[in-house]
Design a protein that fits this description.
- The protein is mainly beta.
- Helices cover 6% and strands 50% of the residues.
- The protein has helices at residues 39-43, 112-121; strands at residues 24-36, 51-52, 59-71, 84-96, 99-109, 125-127, 129-132, 150-157, 160-172, 184-191, 199-207, 210-226, 241-254, 257-259.
- A hairpin with a 2-residue loop joins strand 4 and strand 5 (99-109).
- The radius of gyration is 19 Å and the shape is globular.
Amino acid sequence: MSVRGFMVPRTATGRSSLVPNPPWHYSGEMLTVEWRTDPARVAELLPEGLEPAPEDPGAVALIWADWQSCSDSLDELLDPVRSQYKETFVVVRCFWRGEVWSRCAYIWVDKDFAMLRGYHQGYPKKLGEMWMTRPVTVGKAGPRLEAGGRFGATVSSYGRRLAEARITLTEPVDRPGFVNGHPMLHHRWMPRIESDGTDSLAELVTMRGYDGEVADVWAADAEVSLFDAPTEELSRLEPVEMIGGFYHRVGTSWRQGITLS
């Protein structure tokens, strides 16, 4: 009998696989802060062959997301420990083969299934702890989605706070920023088992979701603070000029990506 499962562990039934077969469906809320940093700090994050975006090369987005996700079976939704997670990710832009792309430079997530799913897609996920203010429609224990609504967000890893942000909603807008608005361009890497400095997997890939929906998009005034940590380099992207903040709700599905090289 052959073993089954989309990713590890693979077993006779495939039930133990940490990640179910795609497609994967996502619904959630996002809080985004955008700023400009020294373009050289963005350039140093780009592997050979990728160049900084020709316009606004120092633009950075730091995004918090509170997700609920599931496979086609929808089984995870009735066992919410398997569907709910949060993540915080850093997006920069790059230029490759005549196009501008978005690229995730850093990302922290709080569930193992989301981390492994990200490795399949080329996201460099690490474990972390993140929190973001939730909007409310009743009571006083949260902001409303209206001008003046105030939100906060934090991300930490290994007991060290890496970033904190605060936004104040100003007005509804059509889109939640521009840094994360292009197709994603990622690398999938795996060192050879010989540990000789070469890779057994080295692919440049792209991906995009389908059946996307966006709602309740608000622009905001924003502030962000980045902190040093022994095993992190986020603070190298120190803000030089704030662009702004955003809040929005989003839904999307993902089935597959494309290997580019």
